[in-house]
Amino acid sequence: MINIDSLVKAFTLGDETIVAVNHVSLHVERGDFIAIVGPSGSGKSTLMNIIGLLDKADEGIYTFDGIDVTSLEDNQQAAIRNEKIGFVFQSFFLLQKLNAIENVMVPLLYRGVSEKEARERAAEILKKLGLEDRMNHLPKELSGGQQQRVAIARALVGNPELILADEPTGALDQTTGKEILKLLQELNRGGQTIIIITHDNFIAHQAKRIVRIEDGRLREEEAE
Amino acid sequence: MNLSLTIKLSLKNIVGNRLRSGLTILGLVIGIASVILLVGIVNGATKSMNDQLSFLNTDVITVYTYDESFSFQYEDMNAIKRLDYITDATPYATVDASVGRGGVKASNASVYAAGEGCIDVMGYELQSGRRFSRIDINNGTKAAIVGSKIAEKLWKNSDPCGSEIKLNGDNYMVVGVLKSKGSSFGNDADNTVIIPFTSARYLGESTKITEIYVKAESDEVVDEATKSIQSYLSREKSLSSDSCEVSSGKQEQEAMAELNRMMALVLGGIASISLLVGGIGVMNVMLVSVTERTREIGIRKALGARRKDIMYQFLIESMVLSMLGGLIGIITGCLLGRIAAIIPDVYFSPSIGMILLSVGVSVTVGLVFGILPAYRAACLRPVEALRYE
Predict the structure, then answer these.
(1) Looking at beta carbons, which residues of chain B come within 8 Å of A79?
(2) Which residues of B17-29 are buried (b: 16+ CB within 10 A; e: fewer)?
(3) Residue B196 burial class via C-beta count within 10 angstroms: exposed 0-12, middle 13-18, buried 19 and up
(4) How many angstroms away from the CA of A120 is the closest CA of chain B?
(5) What is the distance between the alpha carbons of residues A43 and A40, in angstroms, rounded to a whole number?
(6) What are the pLDDT digits (tens) for A25-84?
(7) Which residues of A touch B296 (CB under 8 A)?
(8) A112 CB near a chain B CB, below 8 Å?
(9) A150 touches chain B (CB under 8 A)
(10) How far is CA A100 from CA A6, A42, A148, A200, B245, in A?
(11) CB of B110 closer than 8 Å to CB of B55
């Protein structure tokens, strides 16, 4: 599904050039559950941003479903983000002025789905995640775990091919973090492809595949 | 996303950000309301001044002496009449007298004493009756010519000519009625009573001539006529320009036009300062909220919003806010103006052009500073927008 070959991304910080992603290659199959692990500053977030089309690589090949996405225009990249990728961020990134169900509706609305249908689909997925009595709450009225579940619902609502989760449990306490992790595992068992970025080895070992990134270089590990 | 949904979501954002929306609207309201209020009041003042001064026709020259010990003689007036470019002249004095008939008072009537040429010099016309004759002036006849409103008030529908009017309780025979000239703030020809100049003595006024109204042959020769009067007075009467004033209605109107130009400049200044203050208010709010909004834009882009989607959202939000602010600003400005006009001698005359200009400028500022930061953020890569501090 995803084919990455020799991806390079460098930043300039003052006089120094930092190669955050250094000739990284990665192959992701449908149904994969990959953990990208590494200490902070290792380049794992940069890699995830490139995979999620939130950032552009300097060099290398990146194809998604056989499409060379590096050469796409802004609007076409937006369409891929909208239809094929669901994001789960460490700090949730919910829209603060919209309530839970409206937050979940947003990706569908940008896709051109009617408001009525979007609302029905959002309600359905929120119900599945056990948030049916929280649908009309604003993010600030929800606990961290609930907010992250809303964010996961938002990521799932458009039936994306890939869920990209960046430290999804980083802002949560251990118990809630484990629940979220369990939820992701269940989704993967249902066939959902997931890439999770984490610095936490315990979390990484819940995934099927672990790739370790250090100083911009990627190394595959055997999962237990 | 379709338009009605975008509007709906924009409204949600506006309501959700009550403080920011309120402050934006406040900036607009302050700018627009103060322009409307101040411009309306200065406009009203200018108008009322114009009305007070424009009762004199442009071809009328006023000759006035400040010198207490000096007064004009009838010979002087006749000599002035014979000067070049001049057709007629009349002495003129205001008389303090009550006006009434059969117990009914005309309280806002003003009484003037003048010579036989006064009707033509002042540019009045008679509706009925006759002018004062030389005999009226020479003998000090107790005669009166009344304005149309006075006639209407004291006589209703009948012709006043031949009946009597009471000035300070004394009977004066009405010999003529003036045609209506329409009312204005200051001098109101329709509420005027004119008596022969020499009759003013019965009402306790001096018969010394201190003010003469002179009619020039035409508008074009007013300046020449003014000059010839000035040179006559300094030559024959040794009156310097310090002790007497010779000015034409044309000059007054030119002075007035100059004053109006000044007022327009003052107005422009006031308007631009108010708009600047309001505009800066709007700008501040928009720019301060840019961090929060940039992250929102980043989130939306991550969820698949195209640049167009972001721009529509912000355009509509800014438009709704600007229009709301504009509307409230207009209402507030007009309301405050009406309230200010309760104070005596304060007139409120809002100008449509100024309202449109102030709303136009404020709304433009609101739109530009609402959209520009949004446009910049929409052009960022999503990761930059999400990370924006």
Answers:
(1) 304, 306
(2) beebbebbbbbbb
(3) buried
(4) 16
(5) 8
(6) 999 999 999 999 988 888 898 999 999 999 999 999 999 999 999 889 999 999 999 999
(7) 95
(8) yes
(9) no
(10) 40, 34, 11, 29, 82
(11) no
Q: Is B7 on the interface with A (CB under 8 A)?
A: no
Gap between the Cα atoms of B351 and B349, Å rounded: 6
Q: Rounded to an integer, what distance in angstroms lies between the CA atom of residue A53 and that of residue A58?
A: 13
- Which of B317, B363, B318, B378 lies closest to B10 in space, CA to CA? B317
Best B299, B303, B386 residue to mutate vs chain A (most A CBs within 10 Å): B303
Tokens 């929102």 locate to: B296
Q: At what angle do helices B222-236 and B249-288 cross, to 10 degrees?
A: 120
Residue-number span of the structural domain to which A107 is assigned? 2-221
* Interface predicted TM-score of the whole assembly (ipTM), two decimals: 0.94
Residue whose structure tokens are 């404020």: B362
Looking at the complex, report in whole angstroms how far the Cα of residue A154 sits from the nearest Cα belonging to chain B.
9
pLDDT tens for B323-365 read: 888 899 999 999 999 999 888 878 888 888 888 888 888 888 8
Query: Bridge partners of B113?
Result: B93, B195
Q: CA–CA separation, B367 vs A216, rounded Å?
A: 44
Residues of A with CB below 8 A from B306's CB? 74-75, 78-79, 110
The token pair that represents B68 in the structure block: 């207490």
Residue for token pair 């720019």: B287
Q: Between chains, do B307 and A98 touch, taking CB under 8 Å as contact?
A: no
Residues B49 and B259: their CA atoms lie apart, in Å, by 10
DSSP per-residue letters across B190-236: GGEEEEEGGGGGGGT----B-EEEEEES-GGGHHHHHHHHHHHHHHH
Q: How confident is the model at residue B219 (pLDDT cuts 50, 70, 90)?
A: confident
- Number of domains, chain A: 1
Cα B199 to Cα B183: distance, rounded to the nearest angstrom: 27
Counting as low any pLDDT under 70, the low residues of chain A are 222-224
Under 8 Å between Cβ of B177 and B160? yes
What is the total residue count of chain B? 389
Per the structure block, which two tokens stand in for A196? 């999770």
B11 token code pair: 């409204």
Cβ pair A78:B301 closer than 8 A: yes
For residue range B37-90, list pLDDT tens digits in order: 888 888 888 777 776 665 567 788 888 888 777 888 888 888 888 888 999 999
Q: For residue A130, give every residue at least 6 positions away whose Cβ sits within 8 Å of its Cβ, in sequence order, or none.
A: A149
CATH of the domain at A125: 3.40.50.300
- What chain A residue is nearest to B382 in terms of C-alpha separation? A54
Query: Please, how many CA atoms are within 13 Å of residue A46, restricted to the half-sphere of its CB?
Result: 27
Do β-strands B104-105 and B99-101 pair in parallel, antiparallel, or remain unpaired?
Answer: antiparallel
Residue with tokens 């007139």: B347
pLDDT tens figures, B295-319: 999 999 999 999 988 888 888 888 8
Given phi > 0 = left and psi -120 to 50 = alpha, else beta, which region is B155? alpha
What separation, in Å, do the N-terminal and C-terminal C-alpha atoms of chain A show?
24
Domain extent listing, chain B: 3-52+256-387, 67-242
